[in-house]
Amino acid sequence: MGIRILFYLLVLSLTLLLSCKPGQNADQATASNKAPEPLKTVEQTVEANKEEIFVEPDNTETHFNLGNSLSSEGRHTEAIDAYKEAINIKPDHAEAYYNLGSAYSKSGMHKEAIDAYKKATSLIESDYTETHYNLGLTYLKLDDEASALKEYKLLKTLDPESAAKLYIAATEKALSDKDNRFLVQVGAYKNANYAKVSLEKLKSHYPNAFIEDEKGFHNVRIAGITSKKEARDIMRDINKKLRTQPFMLNHVHPVD
User: How many CA atoms lie within 13 A of 166 on its CB side?
Assistant: First the structure.
């Protein structure tokens, strides 16, 4: 009986030693063979955040982390309250203001989002390009093209890639909005490079200029025009600035 037990112990020891990685002892090998703990669900993380707040109600980061957890689950209204609480404790928490702006925007509260984004930019020492980009998008949602254009111009110096994304978003919005019934054509070029040069000149003044290829020509046009009067005003302005003779087109929207 004793010999049998000794044999089993010897086999077990050899098994553990063979499973060891170089430099491990048997205890470490046993620990490494344990199954990893399952990852927490978002809801579990939310509950853990709330428990931390109960223990440390004046800890800024626990409220901030709760806001992030709620936001990732699409519970933006609750996330807004959590970010506000973090800001109440630490009024200069720039990232909380930024995330608050994002939660407001996702809740359709665009004016509040703009205020939060602006506060975030005022608290960050270096220019935070993502905040300016989101500000531009939010201005577009409010049909404030002039303010969106300012953000675009600022982004051109900070982050040209983000500026290009914002410009595309502005143009797509103008082209898809069925209230915009007219286009202004500034020029038609056989040479694509000439069309690009013309477009770049317009971009500083009109956030909805674009190039549309048609019948072998690269047409430089401006979208986002709701009335003939607005179109005529734009044509006069372009004629004065660029010394060209633009003309008006009807904007035909695709049938749904």
Answer: 33
